[in-house]
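Practice problem 4.
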């Protein structure tokens, strides 16, 4: 009808995010975060190199306990009992020193080739914790999302396949742990401002 008010559906394409590009870096645990997603991470940050086209997966694993009082059928309180953040990715440059160091939990110094050019190391049957700091960057045009993990550790490694028609890669799931401030992931983003909603 001519007198009806039309609802203005607000949409802004530049507020969406497609993981078109990005990268990952690793440093000794406790290394300070880059101050901006627009700056190149400096030493001691080291690049993880090429990442598969599956990109970066930021995972959430949460569990909760619901409390339903006697006489009601719906809970009147929910308590979070587990909240874990993870990052998943597959790195393709499996001969890059920082990548090998992470995958095999070995110090980079132990991966230096000998005078004959051979790299020799052994995998222990009793691995120890190997926490590092991580910096992940996702880029979509002029939008940047930076994720700083002050304490993270690879807790899942998938099988590595070596075959003619497939790129070998190290597929990792990195679990984040709280730092001294109790935080697991810090976000540093450069994203467009959200426009004001139209007035009614």
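Answer key:
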């Amino acid at each position: 009808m001519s007198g009806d008010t039309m609802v203005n559906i607000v949409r802004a394409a530049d507020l969406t995010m497609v993981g078109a590009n990005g990268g990952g870096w690793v440093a000794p645990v406790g290394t300070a975060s880059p101050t901006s997603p627009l700056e190149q991470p400096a030493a001691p940050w080291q690049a993880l190199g090429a990442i598969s086209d599956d990109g970066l997966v930021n995972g959430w694993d949460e569990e909760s306990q619901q409390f339903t009082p006697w006489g009601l059928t719906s809970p009147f309180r929910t308590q979070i009992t587990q909240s874990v953040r993870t990052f998943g990715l597959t790195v393709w440059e499996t001969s890059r020193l920082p990548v090998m160091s992470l995958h095999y939990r070995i110090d980079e110094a132990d991966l230096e080739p000998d005078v004959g050019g051979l790299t020799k190391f052994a995998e222990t049957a009793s691995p120890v914790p190997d926490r590092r700091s991580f910096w992940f960057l996702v880029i979509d045009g002029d939008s940047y999302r930076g994720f700083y993990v002050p304490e993270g550790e690879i807790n899942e490694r998938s099988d590595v396949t070596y075959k003619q028609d497939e790129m070998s890669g190290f597929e990792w799931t990195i679990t984040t742990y709280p730092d001294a401030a109790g935080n697991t992931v810090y976000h540093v983003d450069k994203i467009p401002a959200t426009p004001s909603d139209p007035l009614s």
